[in-house]
Amino acid sequence: MSAPSDAAAAVDTPAPTTAAAASSGGFTFKLHPLVIVNVSDHHTRVKAQAACSGDSSSSSSGAGAGQPPRVFGCVIGVQRGRTVEIFNSFELVLDPVSGTLDRAFLEKKQELYKKVFPDFYVLGWYSTGSDVHDTDMQIHKALMDVNESPVYLLLNPTINLSQKDLPLTIYESELHVIDGSPQLIFVRSNYTIETVEAERISVDHVAHLKPSDGGSAATQLAAHLTGIHSAIKMLNSRVRVIHQYLVAMQKGDIPVDNSLLRQVSSLVRRLPAMESQKFQDDFLMEYNDTLLMTYLAMFTNCSSTMNELVEKINTSYERPTARRGGRGAFM
């Protein structure tokens, strides 16, 4: 599947730095479905959070009143010659007042992804909307210190049943001379969808989610998340009951029950999900001691095996101390 290559990015009142006047044929883009799923999930979460908070348009999204909030993020992948392959993406944080990027958050995300995917680099950024905005070039230029020629992926979240292609556009930036001065503009590029087996299975699974309970609007995924939420809520209520009981016992409102305290202590010891420094130190000490004992057992086993091998070699090549005729061994 490829995006149309001859259409330009139209804006009602285009600024010289954001207009897309021509298509670009310099690079070949390969886009993995995981990026589309990530961007769609990002937009859905932000939209749901805005609806729950009663704010139809987020102040940091740049969307107008009554418009769905815009989301922003980085796309990562590899570039081999003139071929750019986009594998994954992560979210970005924008300042709600100035609309500038949070550089510390971006650098932290880069560092984390570099540890997991050392071959991936930041190729550009993504956003949602029906068209290019005048403020998009500001974010585009801010990412040029990370990638000198970033790409811009724009996803239109508006549902159009008559549209057969994906509502997705990839833009490049080119330097054009406008009114005698050089300025950057967005130009639309071609792209193809590249899939691997794991991505194909996951996308197919999402596409075949059907409503549960016949005419119910909840999907299987929503029902699964609802079940997890109910389980966590029940666990929280039971932990709260135990906590209230222990507090009342500590205050002397109820008599001390040692057998019950032992059961609570045994239950708590099964949950090592603690982030205190003391827990981390104790855990690392026990972990290192266990590794030390394991290594010691391995060294002991290896030494015993080597000792047996040396004894067998000495036995096989041992020379006799006396020969026939009463003569001693010739040295």
What this model shows, in words?
There is one protein chain. This protein is α/β, with parallel strands linked by helices and 331 residues long. Helix content is 41%, strand content 19%. It is built from seven helices and seven strands; from the N terminus they run βαββαβαβββαααα. It has helices at 33-53, 103-116, 136-142, 197-207, 220-251, 258-269, 277-316; strands at 23-31, 72-80, 83-91, 121-128, 151-155, 168-178, 181-193. Strands 1-3-2-4-5-6-7 form a seven-stranded mixed barrel. Strand 2 and strand 3 (83-91) form a beta hairpin. The longest helix is centred in the last third of the chain and has 40 residues, at 277-316. The radius of gyration is 32 Å and the shape is extended.
Layout: helices, strands, pairs:
Blueprint (H helix, E strand, L loop, with lengths): L22 E9 L1 H21 L18 E9 L2 E9 L11 H14 L4 E8 L7 H7 L8 E5 L12 E11 L2 E13 L3 H11 L12 H32 L6 H12 L7 H40 L15
Parallel strand pairs: 1-3, 1-7, 4-5
Antiparallel strand pairs: 2-3, 2-4, 5-6, 6-7
Outline:
This protein is α/β, with parallel strands linked by helices.
Shape assignment: extended
* Percent strand: 15-25%
Q: Give the N-to-C terminal Cα separation.
A: 86 Å
Count of DSSP E strands?
A: 7
Rg, nearest Å: 32 Å
User: Which residue ranges are poorly predicted, with pLDDT under 50 across at least 5 consecutive positions?
Assistant: 1-17
Number of helices: 7
Helix content: 40-55%
**Structural class of the helix and strand makeup?**
alpha/beta
Can you summarize the main beta sheet? 7 strands, mixed, barrel
**Average pLDDT level:** 77
Order of helix and strand elements from N to C terminus: EHEEHEHEEEHHHH
- Strand order of the biggest β-sheet: 1-3-2-4-5-6-7
